[in-house]
Amino acid sequence: MSRTMKAGIYHGLQDIRLEEIEMPTVKPGHALIDTKVSGICGSDLHQYYGEWRQPRTKVATGHELSGIVVEVGDGVSSVSVGDRVCPECFAHCGTCRFCRIGQYNLCENIRYISQAGYGGFGEYALLPASALFKLPNNISFEEGALVEPLAVAHRSLLRTGVSRRARIAILGAGTIGLLCLAVAKVLDFQEVLITAKYEHQAKMAENFGADHVIRVSTQDVRQETKTLFEPHGADVVVDTIALEPTFHDAVAIVRKAGTICLVGGYTGSLNLSLGAVVTKELQLVGSQCYSYSGLSTDFAAVIELIASQTIDGTPIITHRFPLDDVTAAFKVAADKSSGSIKVLLCQE
Length: 348
Prior knowledge:
348 residues; single chain; 2 domains; Rossmann fold; Quinone Oxidoreductase, Chain A, domain 1; 6-stranded parallel sheet; alpha/beta
C-alpha cells in the first residue's frame, strides 16, 4: 500500500484543493478505512466559508462517510479488516459522567473527526473504532454515507417527546430538514409541514410525502401555518436553519405548551425575544448529533430502518463527483441554485 494518498485540503475561505498527503499511521484504538463514499455536510460548508475553524494542519475533514476497514490498531476488537462501516462524527471517552449514562454526545472529552483526524475527504480515513458502526451487506455505500445525517434527524424528532400523532412543522428543506421529514413519516406524525427556500427542495419534499410544503419565497410561513394547522398551531416545530428569523417563526407558529427543537448549526449570536416562550409555556430543546434515544443508539436505529427498506434517503443525492473533483463538488454544494441537496464524493 502506498504511504501517500489524495485528499481534499482547505487553503482558506472557499478554497479546498486536491493534494497528495502522507497517509495516517494507525494508532491504538483506531481503524484505517478505505473510503468509498463521503457526503458534503452543512457543517463542512461552515468550514468552507470560514464560519467554523478550518484545520490548521493538512488533514482531510469530512464525517459523512462509508468504507471498508483495511487495518486496525492495537486494542481494537469491535471491527475487523474487511468490515463495511460508517462512523459517528466524534469519539467519546466512555468514562465521563455523560458517557456513563448513555448521553455520550455530551462527552466531556469529545473529539470531533473534522478537527482531530483524517476524515472522509481523503482516500483513507483514520477513525476511532468506538465511533464505527458495521453496515449490513444490503446497505450500499451511498446509503451508508447517509446514516450520519439520518441519525441527526432521528434524534431531533425523538428529542421532542411528543405524541407521534402530533402535527409537526419542519423549518428548512436541506439535507437535515428533508431527512426529518422522512423520519416523521415513518414515526406516523398526523401531519407534516415543511418550509423550502428553493423549488427543487420543495419538489423533493413533495416526493418525500410532506402533507404541506410552504415555499418561503412566495408564501408567508406564519400565515400559511396558521391556516393549515388551525386553530392552535403546530404541536412541534423543528428548526434546522438556525437563523434569527426562523427562531421567531418557530415561536410564532407553535401552539401553546408546544415544543420547539433546535437542530441547526448556529454560527453566531442571535437577538431573541423570549417573552412568548414564557407566556405560551413552550418547551425549548436542543438536539446535539446523536446518542442513545431510548434503548438503541440513533445510528443503530437508522441502520435498521435503511436495511429494512423502511426509509430510503437516497433521492436527496443530487450530485456525485470523484474525489479528484473535490473543488468542483464544494462549489456545487455551496451553490443551492445549482439544484444541489446532497453532494457526494465517490471513490467506488
